[in-house]
Amino acid sequence: MRTLLLASALFAGLIGSLAAVPVPPGPAPYSAFCRTVWLFAKPCTEVSTTIVQQIQEFSPLIGCDECQYMLVSATPLSIKANHTTIEGLQAENITLSLSNTKTTGGCRVAAQSTSLGFTSLLDDGLNYCNLYNLLSVSGLNRSPGFMEMTNEWACLGYGLATCKA
Which residues pair with 74 in a beta bridge? Predict the structure, then answer.
């Protein structure tokens, strides 16, 4: 009985503490997302230029029906873009943070795609595909030394993704 009372008190305290946490502005707290890290054996200037060019070139004309990307901002070490479905029913923010690796002279990219608004946390890999499409069509996923690090915890729907690009 004591264990049940203690567990109830701990649970109530946890719920109470979560209610006191302010919700930051931006996407809904229950939005689907994907975070991944890419490693390249080439300098960040090359990686950044390739990704920015790919975002600017994406259009339905190249056979990617979901590829409605819009570049928001780009610096040598930061890229922000938006992705919207053709129907305009779903939108995601894409953020890429690039950093040069000192030991190898390569580039580390922390990539994230986050759905705006309330969506199912299991988005069938849409957020992963937003990021993967940039790699695949640009050819960066085939560059020497490329490595991707993610999993189902960091990238909801990763295991369900069937990217078309």
Answer: 79
Q: Collapsing DSSP states into helix, strand and coil, what is residue 29?
A: coil
CB of 107 within 8 A of CB of 43?
yes
* The pLDDT of residue 84: 81
H-only helix segments in 20-164: 44-57, 126-138
Return d(Cα 38, Cα 69) in angstroms, integer.
20
What is the identity of the amino acid at 93? N
- Give CA 50 to chain center in angstroms: 18
Tokens representing residue 74 in the block = 């780009």
- Of 62, 79, 78, 61, nearest to 70 by C-alpha is 79
DSSP state of 142: G
Q: Cα–Cα distance between 163 and 143 in angstroms, integer? A: 19
- Give the predicted TM-score (pTM) of the model: 0.74
Characterize 129-154 residue by residue with b for buried, 16 or more Cβ atoms within 10 angstroms of its Cβ, and e for exposed. bbbbbbbbbbebeebeebeeebeeee
- The third-level CATH classification (topology) of the domain covering 29-160 is TATA-Binding Protein (3.30.310)
Q: Which helix (H) or strand (E) holds 2?
A: helix 2-19
Q: Which two tokens stand for residue 29?
A: 């707290």
3-class state of residue 138 by DSSP: helix
Question: Could you read off the pLDDT of 80-108 as tens digits, one per residue?
Answer: 998 887 666 678 899 999 999 988 889 99
Q: Where are the domains of the chain?
A: 29-160
